[in-house]
Amino acid sequence: MTAPNVTVRILPDGEALGRAAAEAVAAALADAAARQDRVTLALAGGSTPRRLYELLAGPFRDALPWDRLHIFWGDERLVPPDDEASNYAMAREALLRHVPLPPGQIHPIPTDRPAAAAAYTATLRQTFGDEGPTFDLALLGLGDDGHTASLFPGGPLPDAPWAAAVTAPARYAVRDRITLTLPALCRARRVFFLVSGEEKRAALHRVLDDADPTLPATHVRARETVTWFVDQAAAG
Ligand code: 6PG
User: Fold this and answer.
1) Which of 36, 94, 116, 166 lies in disulfide reach of 53, CB 3.0 to 4.6 Å?
2) What pLDDT, in 10s, does the model give residues 29-43?
3) Alpha-carbon torsion 180, 181, 182, 184, what sign?
4) CA–CA distance, 135 with 137 (Å, rounded to integer)
């Protein structure tokens, strides 16, 4: 049972998921661009969004308001920006280097400073003011342990209003992370989750069917809507 403003869309496979999400991203950002000068999008990390990003740079390229779009990240691993584990690097290769985004509109999470969370918070404040980030759209993935962004189960979630430095569980290759916090994510107007693969099935059902409070993804809300783009393999 999901909350009233939550929609679950089940697509046959990863390609269909990417296309459905690309259409929805284009529609959401066009809607925002019709209402305001600046449009803000927080990208998800991991591997699932890659196909979506490739489609946004390809067949959907002309549907996005690049001249007014500001790009942020939901989380980042503390590795150099050209490291293969970097969420920024994946987005740059799949999307950013192929589209006419002014460089000043791309806001990576700084990973070269000890106070990266504070630096990212300062960037967010510059864009959104002191109230807190209100992304027009935030993209998120789901880990097989129910984490999202770099908010992991098993311990207290950071409750800072913006961003926080966290340590991922030992099973993850890169443990030092910077993440948007739950309060920051929940201020987004719209949230899209992208979930693909059978290995996500258990976590997905614990979130959507059981509303398992031990899983961080269960607590993600949005001011307007949350849409889950799920392929058949993950949905079961
Ligand atoms: C990260 C991501 C993380 C990701 C999930 C799913 O930095 O790892 O932000 O939250 O979305 O782990 O990752 P996959 O898409 O690779 O399965």
Assistant:
1) 94
2) 999 999 999 999 999
3) negative
4) 5
Q: Name the band, by pLDDT with cuts 50, 70 and 90, for residue 192.
A: very high
Contacts of residue 60, Cβ cutoff 8 Å, sequence gap at least 6: 22, 23, 25, 26
Residue from 148, 166, 175, 229 whose mutation best tests the ligand 1 pocket (most atoms within 8 A of CB): 148
d(CA 170, CA 186): 27
pLDDT at residue 8 tops 70: yes
For residue 44 and ligand 1, the question of a CB distance below 6 A is answered with yes
14 lines ligand 1 (CB under 6 A): no
Q: What is the pLDDT of residue 2?
A: 64
Q: How far apart are CA 51 and CA 48, in angstroms?
A: 7
Q: Over the range 113-131, which residues count as b (16 or more CB within 10 Å of their CB) and which as e?
A: eeebbbbbbebbeeebeee
